[in-house]
Specification:
By secondary structure, the protein is mainly α. It has one domain. Helices cover about 85% and strands about 0% of the residues. The chain has 18 helices and no strands. The protein has helices at about 10-45, 45-65, 70-85, 90-125, 130-140, 140-155, 160-185, 190-215, 230-260, 265-300, 305-335, 350-365, 365-375, 375-400, 405-430, 435-460, 465-485, 490-500. Helix 2 packs across helix 6 and helix 7 packs antiparallel against helix 8 (about 190-215). The two termini are about 45 Å apart. The relative contact order is 0.12.
Amino acid sequence: MAQVDSLDRADIGGLARRGLFSLGGAAISAIASLLVIVVVTRGSGKTEAGNLFSATSLFVIAESLCALGTATGLVYYIARVRALDRGDGVRGLLRTALPPVIAVSVTVAVLMELLAPSVAGMISDGSDDTLVIFIRVLAPFLPCAVLFDVLIAGTQGFHTMTPTVLLEKIGRPTLQVALLLVAMLVGENWLMALGWVAPYAIGLVVVTGAIARLVRKEKHEPVTLRVVPPSEFWRYTGPRGIAAVAQLTLQRLDIVLVAAYLGPRDAAIYTAATRFVVLGQLGSQAVSLAVQPKFSELLAKHDLASTLRVYRTSTAWVMAVTWPIHLLVGILAPIILLLFGSGYDEGRWVVMVLAGAMLVATGCGMVTMLLVMAGRTTANLINVLVALGANLSLNLILIPRWGIVGAAVAWAVSILLSNILPLVQIRRSLGLDPFGRSSAAVALLAFAAFGAVPSIGWLLGGSPALVIGLCVVGVLLYGAGIWRLRRVLDLDSLITPVLRRLR
């Protein structure tokens, strides 16, 4: 295996530029996603909000199930066939992946329509039919949502982030906010579900044209044998498909269980509190989407030295983006939950528990994605199933005893398992780990700026104005510290060309 780091500053700079572009989209997506929750919680009662969150959680789990793991499979194989100069295999990959996805998603959509009353009866007490209406409005759009996600992932294999950022990160959540506002003004409950799901159909039209243009640019030779045999593609994507469903279930099933055990009111509070965890996840995903094809290429060439450098550098980038968010969310939990209206501050302990778990998770870097890009989809599946089993067991035990805090503890444990298990496997099989000088520097800086400094405000009486003011001081200190660490974080390759253009 190659032991020489083959990356140059241009490679790191390209990854940084794609990551920064994706990060900008993720920031807009985070704000829009938070606004979706704010609009729903402030524009409707807790019962209606809880029912909508439960219905959309079921929809997202079904969406992941119907994708059959093809989103990751397309990124993995498109990047590989292009790295090996076999771009003619892209069409074959799409012909392999899309027909089964369409067939399964249509079937599940029909079942959702037919079984909506039974599914709603298992979650709610049946006192109203709002949940049934929400499920039936969402169901016809399931094939559109699945194809949208799969094709968006396919474009990432071409090393372009433009469709992902413009359509998935900016377009869809922003349009959801606009349509939900219209639904609130009209005052019809079913329009809330329609406003949430309709952007998938609009986005599908646009992304279909985008991937068609990318495929046309690839060289195409009249070959009868596909570069990647369908059997190989499905052997890779099969375990990944099950793992993807399990991962989405980890993030969404607790909402459904809270609604079933405690009612839609508590489900609304729990959903609002957990959305702040998603803010940090979006930042992590922004870097992940930019780096994922590069991992596939480097591992295809068995270049472990370059893979280690990208892994450690990208981990520091992820921490630099997400640790300020998780620390601030934990510190400011009693204040920021007021955004959703009265009564939602009951979720402050949920926020703090999950924020702590996410600090550990992001400190492991993109370990799950690296495991998958190394072809270890079966190991990834086992990890996710272990985490899901722990999550489900703890939810059943802790929700009746501790309420929404119990659900948060269950999710936190599953988050830790989902990251620590693959971390051990990557270390043993490839000799790679995310721990380096850059990540240690970011950790110390983040704790100082967003842990120590704002905590002074709580120690001095907890005035919201004082705490927020100290958070602003922390932001300034953090910005100055990141600038001092720019060489350690390999950001010079991004900053230098920008400064040169400005001059």
